Amino acid sequence: MPKIIVLPHEDLCPEGAVLDAETGETVLDVALKNGIGIEHACEKSCACTTCHVIVREGFDSLDESDELEDDMLDKAWGLEPESRLGCQAKVTDEDLVIEIPKYTLNHAAEEH
Domain for residue 107, yes or no? Predict the structure, then answer.
């Protein structure tokens, strides 16, 4: 069973975590079912960047991002070459090490 290793994040996961994942699950779904409250303002529809994660290890095991995800990622804070949207990155049979960026851009929340 593949694992997702979440690097420490001061608010969402201060100690870091090692999560069991099923092949085909998204990084976001695995995090949420394990109590790591990564924001997902668009309800996992690839319409925002709030679930942006950086894949520090295992990036090449993921399916390539599509044009819609790439367009969304262009708007993400702290974009890196290994950035993905957690709602789009599906676990394969390889372990992943992810970092949750310190900040996200939530245009819906900022308008209130």
Answer: no
Whole-angstrom Cα distance, residue 100 to residue 41? Answer: 15
Structural domain containing residue 55 = 3-92
Q: How far apart are CA 105 and CA 39, in angstroms?
A: 10
Alpha helix (H) ranges present in the chain? 27-33, 67-73, 107-110
How far is it, in rounded angstroms, from Cα 71 to Cα 48?
10
Q: What is the CATH number of the domain that holds 75?
A: 3.10.20.30
**84 strand-pairing partners:** 53
Q: Give dist(CA 107, CA 73) in Å, integer.
A: 14
Number of structural domains (the chain) is 1
pLDDT tens digits, residue range 31-62? 999 999 999 999 999 999 999 999 999 999 99
Please give the model's pTM, rounded to 2 decimal places.
0.91
